[in-house]
Design brief:
With 179 residues, this protein is α/β, with parallel strands linked by helices. The chain has one domain: Rossmann fold (3-Layer(aba) Sandwich), CATH 3.40.50.2020. It is 25% helix and 32% strand. The strands form 2 sheets. Strands 4-3-2-5-6-7 form a 6-stranded mixed β-sheet. Bound molecules: inosinic acid and magnesium ion (MG). Inosinic acid binds next to strand 5, helix 3 and strand 8.
């Protein structure tokens, strides 16, 4: 275990099993169609690459990078740093996100993508923290519901670090202060 991690919340094997199940569910729901995965960079990267390998229907992949304005707390005021390369008109879009916390980022994404006339848009998030939710965005595919703790690993970062950890871990308070 990494020295800055207090506790492994979701070990590697549990992530693998849940991601496989999500892939099977998505493959069944999108049978006969092409799904367009829209990953939210950078947190989606590890999750999306594993998930995509478990999807058996035709799959496109595109990415967006967003940044929330100011400070530690999500305001819901979002800036697009990198936009989709392709049109999603008439596409079945599945947003792939690392974690839905307040839900404000996903609310913005949904509104924004819907103006581009996709056939459908759904959300797939590896993690959900329901205790902090401020919106009612529907997360159709949800990996794990977690308590209100700051987690890192499997794509999630703290100040840009820890994304490569192969598990979801809770950070040590002492490490949060130092980094
Ligand atoms: P929301 O708009 O509050 O739902 O913000 C979600 C974003 O906040 C995620 O995409 C993450 O980048 C970040 N975030 C929220 N909770 C955590 C956490 O526990 N660890 C790392 N990043 C987090
Ligand atoms: Mg994110």
């Amino acid at each position: 275990m990494h020295k800055d991690i207090d506790e492994i919340l979701i070990p590697r094997a549990e992530l693998e099993a849940r991601v496989k199940a999500l892939g099977e569910q998505i493959s069944a729901d999108y049978a006969g169609r092409t799904v367009t995965l829209v990953g939210v960079l950078k947190g989606c990267v590890l999750f999306m690459s594993d998930l995509a390998k478990c999807i058996t229907v035709d799959t496109r992949m595109d990415f967006m990078m967003l940044s929330s304005y100011s400070g530690a707390h999500s305001t819901g005021v979002v800036r697009i740093l990198l936009d989709l390369k392709e049109s999603i008109e008439d596409c079945d879009v599945l947003i792939v996100e690392d974690i839905v916390d307040s839900g404000l980022t996903m609310e913005y994404m949904l509104q924004n993508l819907k103006t581009r006339r996709p056939r459908s848009v759904e959300i797939c998030s590896l993690l959900e923290k329901p205790s902090r939710r401020k919106t009612t965005v529907p997360v159709k595919y949800s990996g794990f519901t977690i308590p209100d703790k700051f987690v890192v690993g499997y794509g999630l970062d703290y100040n840009g670090i820890y994304r490569n950890l192969p598990y979801i871990g809770v950070m040590k308070e002492s490490a949060i202060e130092r980094k």
